[in-house]
Amino acid sequence: xxxxxxxxxxxxxxxxxxxxxxxxxxxxxxxxxxxxxxxxxxxxxxxxxxxxxxxxxxxxxxxxxxxxxxxxxxxxxxxxxxxxxxxxxxxxxxxxxxxxxxxxxxxxxxxxxxxxxxxxxxxxxxxxxxxxxxxxxxxxxxxxxxxxxxxxxxxxxxxxxxxxxxxxxxxxxxxxxxxxxxxxxxxxxxxxxxxxxxxxxxxxxxxxxxxxxxxxxxxxxxxxxxxxxxxxxxxxxxxxxxxxxxxxxxxxxxxxxxxxxxxxxxxxxxxxxxxx
Amino acid sequence: xxxxxxxxxxxxxxxxxxxxxxxxxxxxxxxxxxxxxxxxxxxxxxxxxxxxxxxxxxxxxxxxxxxxxxxxxxxxxxxxxxxxxxxxxxxxxxxxxxxxxxxxxxxxxxxxxxxxxxxxxxxxxxxxxxxxxxxxxxxxxxxxxxxxxxxxxxxxxxxxxxxxxxxxxxxxxxxxxxxxxxxxxxxxxxxxxxxxxxxxxxxxxxxxxxxxxxxxxxxxxxxxxxxxxxxxxxxxxxxxxxxxxxxxxxxxxxxxxxxxxxxxxxxxxxxxxxxxxxxxxxxxxxxxxxxxxxxxxxxxxxxxxxxxxxxxxxxxxxxxxxxxxxxxxxxxxxxxxxxxxxxxxxxxx
Lengths: 276, 349
Description:
heterodimer, A: alpha/beta, Conserved hypothetical protein from pyrococcus furiosus pfu- 392566-001, ParB domain, 3 domains, 5-stranded mixed β-sheet, two-stranded antiparallel ribbon, about 50% helix, elongated, B: alpha/beta, pyruvate-formate lyase- activating enzyme, 8-stranded mixed β-sheet
């Protein structure tokens, strides 16, 4: 295998603008010991060694040691990074570099289950990554993007907002799931119904899961109308997989009569919420 | 109808069996490959040996009330393409595996009868539609013959095909329970691609029962609450009465649509426009994903009441449902042993 010295100005990183910044350790190591592993290049595109290349640039080098490999740069990128799970954005950008006849092979090499939804999501992410001047701080994992891909043409309407909306990844995953449910039921809203993920999630759940919402509302109302005595509390399984209530009581000898009061309240709640 | 496959894979260990040659002469295929092992290479029909057990207890589901059924693992796959079918989780669409070492199957059935006391219900419909393949793989006809006269034994042949030759040509079919999966015709047109129509199934059931004296069974599984589901299912119950009035029905099962995690991806891969996932689904305690429990109860209550109107004497049970749902529908605790007893008793009537 021949190592060649190539001009940095001639090298184009496959990941383009989303190339990750090198960390201090890498910069220090290259500055003290030089590069341990040459970059892998195909058709003047860097397929492996994006951070090393960025560190070289930072250190003011004009050339870098490279190994010239044959094959599609995107496929080489997937193969050479097979030891780690690729992020959604880097996967999408590399995917967008593939010829259409190589896309299926690329996804296989990247160990992704191919589907029209995934392809749609990758196309959206790549376009979004190229057009955005400031990439969002939070990245969404591929499984959320895949879920959003199921929305088809409706994906455009929600993906950008979901990405920039404050909230946890777990909330966003559930939002993506509820959007899909809402679309199947033809109740998809015009835009995400809320200013943060928790709010949007609650509103979407009311839309996508009306049976559960009704049952929970009925329970809340019944509980309000039939308050339990002090020291008593009830819990229910909010998916209603298990029927019934879980009653907890904390009683002293002096207030044992509250059991009778609680019994009456519980009976009234059962009567009002048949789902229990 | 001749079955067509892109590839025919023949395991070297079965290539000289007369059954393999017979199947080869009855199907159409583009390419033939000789392979080794039971792993299906994909996109075609695989003829091989079953190195595991042919006869197994129905896998049921942990935490569900199950009926103590036995199943024949004759292979896997189905020429029909039902959009809700769980087989899509295990094998590619249209891929079929057939096991040709029938002698082992026969021995295991005889062993089972010797080993187990009391009634045995054995079914061939767990891993695909058995009658749909009977034209090339006449295992049902063979099992009917092997088990004729066997004490306390019923073979349930469950299908969505109206080709009941295996039963009609049997010398003795009194130990056969011919079962059909039913759904409203509108759902059959939309979701059960390639399967017989509702009237064809009911007509086949009535013909076999009248001419061969076999008992019948029906499975509403999955019950699908699609648009106007109550009206559609009520029409099916009425039609059943029209065709089956006075015939012996051993049992009717009900099961709402349910699936394991990951199944949705497969359904959408093969049937991207399916409407069957447009509902509220929740993970049950057994890990399967089901409709909202109160809604399941509503569906079961409706179906039970509708069927009992015409078939008051027939045991109606729920397949793979949780003990909580059984308890709420029957107002008493009801476990797997109770269900087994209920179905075994029905055989003795």
